[in-house]
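pinging the channel bc i need a second pair of eyes. not urgent but kinda urgent?? the chain im working w is below, pasted from the shared doc
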Amino acid sequence: MRLSNDIAYHMINSIIEVETRRAYHTTSLHIAMLIRRGKIINVASNAIGSRSKGCGYATKTIHAERAVIKKAGDTSKLDGAIMVVIRIMRGTREVGPSEPCHACKCHLKKCIRDHGLKRVYYSA
């Protein structure tokens, strides 16, 4: 079964609404989605990490790519999945260009090599 474009846009807008409320401190919002067999497995955004949440950062941000993998919990869930990372510009809510930082590139290469992640797509 395929989703109509209207339903897909509604789903994406709902995700953006929720994640925008969570990541109010950033100038732009990066949303990462793990998708396997046409289903969204997990969604996460860039956020400030805290030791109480177990991400190991006190005042630094955790990038959306790492956050969605952490949210998945088990790296076996990456097997056969694709990741889509979208940058939403704060204020205008337009899709902006996104690209991984060096640390995320290395981490994602390892996920592709060792855990079966198929591909990673970034908004242009």
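so Residues 5-122 form a domain with the Cytidine Deaminase; domain 2 fold (CATH 3.40.140). and The helical segments are 5-22, 64-72, 102-115. — does that match what u expected or am i reading it wrong
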